[in-house]
Amino acid sequence: xxSTPDAGPWRLAIVGRLTPNKNQQSAVxxxxxxxEAGFDVALDVVGDGPERDRLVALATELGVIDRVHFHGMVxxxxxxxxxxxxxxxxxxxxxxxxxxxxxxSMVLGVVPVxxxxxxSEEISGGGTRAVVIxxxxxxxxxxxxxxxxxxxxxxxxxxxxxxxxxxxxxxxAFGRRTRELLERQWGLSLAxxxx
Length: 195
Known about the structure:
The protein is an alpha/beta fold.
């Protein structure tokens, strides 16, 4: 966790397949807006896919390629290492289900900035442990990041809430919460497991 407000650049992390739906270009554009505004930020991009070359070209065009580290495909242990070094996770996916990558980062004290979905309120704790954004508005992504950088106390409180919320995650607990969520969303009662 960031020990002092000036402990080097704020580390932003993207983890996922580099595809048009994952919309990582919005995060790269947000990074450029933050740099332009004078913020010391860097971006780790973990994953590979058909958008990689476009993202490299975009970061180059926007003048932030020196602040972006493309890790490519790595094993899960390396993903967790990137999260351990990160302050914020950016997930600018246009359509996402229950993004387990958000929970993985939260366990390690990384605050997610991510797209609205049917479970975004559940994951974000209504804004107490994550920030929900419009993925197609890089200026909104940048504003969310800027808000957390400028309010370190809020960011620290969100780190604590994210860790606390993910502390008791087990497959059984996840199953119960998913069932509750689906029943609430669909307005019905699901049959239990067969004996």
